[in-house]
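input
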Amino acid sequence: MLGGNKTEADCSFGELYRRYSYRIFGYCRRMVGDDKAEDVCQEIFLSFLDHGRKQTTVINVGSYLFRIAQNKTRRFKREETKLALDEFKEELYSAENHNYEQRELNQLVINALALLPEDHRETLALQVYSGMSYKDIATVRQVPVNTVKSHILRAKKQIRAILLPFFQGESK
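output
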């Protein structure tokens, strides 16, 4: 893809970067936000450069770059969501001055979260822990706002159903 000697390959890459960087960066901004877009964009072009050095044959460079961009931004969002969920769990666990009952309740909530479908769990964690709006969650998850609302509603119903038996005896 970036064949020839090093100078020709550098010139070819420079030209491709000039042609596509603005559009790729714009895509990244929409997908991961302004603060992370530059880093993700650089990763995209580094990945492209690595593939180019392997003499990969590419027919449509623009489509190829956007496919890399799509994969990188999805991976980034998955990792970001996983971090938010991990931080949520850590916060529940780290309450050192919680009494025994509070620690037990935290463990019940974590176990209930683990039983949820992944998309529901991630959506709920983004809302509860990260404090994100439905619109922001929809952007991060690449789903319609109504899907976010549905996932959150279903997740809360499922958690309520899972935890209800533990609290029915206390209310009597």
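quick obs: The CA atoms of residues 26 and 37 lie 8 Å apart.
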